[in-house]
Design a protein that fits this description.
The protein is built from 15 helices and seven strands. With about 325 residues, the chain is an alpha+beta fold. The strands form two sheets. A five-stranded antiparallel β-sheet has the order 4-6-7-3-5. It has a two-stranded antiparallel ribbon with strand order 1-2. The radius of gyration is 22 Å and the shape is globular.
Length: about 325
């Protein structure tokens, strides 16, 4: 049966990878004696019919990485104002890199925009900000990252245990070696930095070669980012955000109150925030502020703005994606 063949391939890859990993990781503890890891083994055997011996081997080989625990516990940097944050992601190098990535993958980007309705520049900007167009996808084994956080970081243990479950399922489904795949210290993977659950829900085989390879195949990564956007509510042809002009009596209590567009453009106008460009008054929106070097700006975040924040729940991130996308279009001299 097909399932048996996939399991055999997964197991074979595991055994090969195990041999390669033994010497490199001998000095780092695995999770063979970790109580939570053993409970996880029991769960995977009972719930998903994994082979117990294979799972025990994986838990021995899944290394506890102190560097990952230090990274995730590191205090977040002091929040940067927009004008500083923007400079981190909109550089001559990031814009030129976006032009190059677009030129190299023009056919796939055009097809993704046609099929999903997500502009090519938005896909390029996401990949640019996430991994510098594939130049930095992370150097940790995904198995090490997820097991370290699942079994040694109580604050988010449930989340990372679920991601580890999804990771082992996706490697079995795709016939991949669970010891081989690399990603970020949090287990995010590929050009677009998908978590395993996102991979299983949104990754697509856009190249139609039989495998959704977001690590080595930019075509699959492009289609997967576009699919993620559509599944999270992207509306083709709609703007992302528009500059607002607040009246003196504008209701400032609603500024930055939510990432979701819980008002309409018309309602926000009634509350004192007038759009400076033409937008349908019934369009869903919220209002947020950005600190520029010249002072505070106010913006209406529309439906597609909210979609970008589903990738990373940050207004600054969403605006950086939007601005980088527009700068890449300008640098190319247009979309065509």
């Amino acid at each position: 049966m097909k399932t048996g063949a996939v399991v055999l391939k997964w197991t074979s890859g595991l055994l090969i990878g195990m041999g390669l990993a033994l010497a490199a990781c001998a000095q780092e503890p695995g999770h063979a004696n970790n109580r939570q890891a053993q409970e996880f083994v029991d769960y995977m055997v009972q719930e998903h019919d994994f082979n117990r011996e294979d799972m025990q081997t994986l838990m021995r080989e899944a290394k506890r990485k102190d560097s990952i625990l230090k990274a995730i516990k590191r205090p977040a940097e002091k929040a940067k104002p927009w004008h500083e944050y923007r400079k981190m992601f909109l550089t001559p190098q990031s814009i030129a890199g976006g032009v190059d990535f677009w030129d190299q993958n023009a056919e796939a980007l055009a097809e993704a925009e046609k099929r999903y309705g997500v502009p090519a520049e938005m896909i390029v900007a996401i990949i640019g900000i996430e991994t510098r167009y594939g130049g930095n996808m992370g150097g940790y084994r995904v198995l090490d990252a997820l097991s370290t956080l699942a079994f040694n970081y109580p604050r988010r243990s449930a989340f990372f245990t679920k991601e580890l479950e999804n990771y082992l399922l996706l490697t079995r489904e795709q016939g991949m070696d669970p010891l081989a795949l690399k990603g970020s210290y949090a287990g995010a993977m590929g050009y677009g930095q998908f978590m395993p659950s996102s991979y299983r829900s949104y990754a697509v085989d856009f190249s139609e070669d039989g495998k959704a390879d977001i690590w080595n195949n930019p075509t699959d990564a492009i289609g997967s980012v576009a699919n993620y956007f559509v599944k999270h509510g992207w509306k083709p042809g709609e703007p992302v955000a528009v500059l607002a002009s607040p009246r003196p009596n504008a209701d400032m209590t609603i500024v930055n109150d939510t990432l979701q567009p819980q008002w309409t453009v018309g309602e926000l106008a009634d509350k004192g925030f007038n759009a400076t460009s033409q937008v349908a008054p019934e369009m869903p929106a919220n209002v947020f502020s950005l600190q520029t070097e010249q002072g505070k700006q106010y913006w209406l975040g529309l439906n597609n703005f909210a979609t970008i924040t589903r990738y990373n729940r940050s207004r600054l991130y969403a605006m950086a994606v939007n601005d980088l996308a527009q700068e890449i279009v300008k640098a190319r001299g247009g979309k065509s």
